[in-house]
Design brief:
15 helices, extended, 59% helix
């Protein structure tokens, strides 16, 4: 759920909330309150608000201010309240990613290792997922896809490929090949079965077709994916001039043949005289 909420824009989150209300007859906020508590609940509610800024560039001074707050807060820096809650609820994803990167540089701490040592349970999993998504969203999806294919988690594979097909599936496919040395569609073909396998392989071939680039090594052969063949439209037959039919004799009773009575021409004033 964290992955969905921190990789979707405000409009997508709004549509998700509407669909959730229609499907389960309750708001997504009520669902979060029923399944989470404490800091985890606060974080999920902040992400589900869907009211963060999405325009403009990253303000470096604002980034420095948020980083200084995290450093000065000491051991309570990861408590979901105050500035951290405002950061997750209102700031752009790019801004949050810059804050995490700058914090690592300025504090000299490994952020992921710090979160693993300080946090626990749902909050630890949640914050680590947030950091991975904000740091490199494409790499995060690549790792989740590889892990899910290895475990046979077909639902997660289906969700990622279908939801990222028109967004960044091309980048995910390229990073998957670079990171694991195998094509994504080949892994899907080996690990999935039946109609699901055919559908996913077809979706990858359409939305992320194989493209040979100059950066690829000569020893690596890019698998060419066959795109679906579409039948051309049928050829139209040339139009022929219709043959003229014999003149049909119109009955004399037809009102169209009746002529209107002629009007007598108007007489001028001189004629009257």
């Amino acid at each position: 759920m964290v992955e969905i909420l921190c990789t979707r824009n405000n409009k997508a989150i709004s549509l998700i909330k509407d669909a959730y209300k229609m499907e389960f007859d309750q708001t997504i906020e009520d669902g979060i309150k029923d399944n989470f508590s404490g800091d985890s609940m606060k974080m999920m509610l902040a992400l589900a608000k869907g009211a963060r800024r999405e325009t403009g560039s990253v303000d470096e001074e604002e980034v420095e201010s948020d980083v200084d707050y995290l450093i000065d807060a000491g051991d309570s820096r990861w408590n979901v309240e105050g500035q951290l809650l405002n950061l997750m609820e209102n700031k752009r994803f790019e801004h949050i990613g810059s804050v995490f990167q700058r914090y690592t540089q300025k504090s000299g701490q490994n952020l992921k290792r710090e979160l693993q040592n300080v946090l626990a349970a749902d909050m630890k999993v949640m914050m680590l997922t947030l950091v991975k998504c904000f740091d490199n969203c494409v790499q995060y999806f690549v790792d989740v896809l590889h892990s899910s294919l290895k475990k046979g988690d077909n639902l997660t594979v289906l969700r990622i490929i279908t939801t990222r097909a028109e967004i960044d599936l091309v980048l995910i496919r390229r990073e998957y090949k670079r990171r694991y040395g195998v094509l994504l569609e080949d892994d899907v073909d080996r690990k999935c079965t039946g109609r699901l396998k055919k559908m996913l392989v077809h979706m990858i071939s359409v939305h992320a077709p194989a493209i040979t680039t100059t950066n690829e090594t000569h020893n690596t052969k890019t698998k060419s994916v066959r795109l679906p063949k579409f039948r051309p439209p049928p050829k139209m037959k040339p139009l022929h001039k219709p043959t003229q039919k014999k003149t049909v004799r119109i009955a004399s009773a037809n009102p169209l043949l009746s002529t209107s009575p002629r009007r007598s021409p108007r007489r001028s004033v001189n004629d009257k005289k």
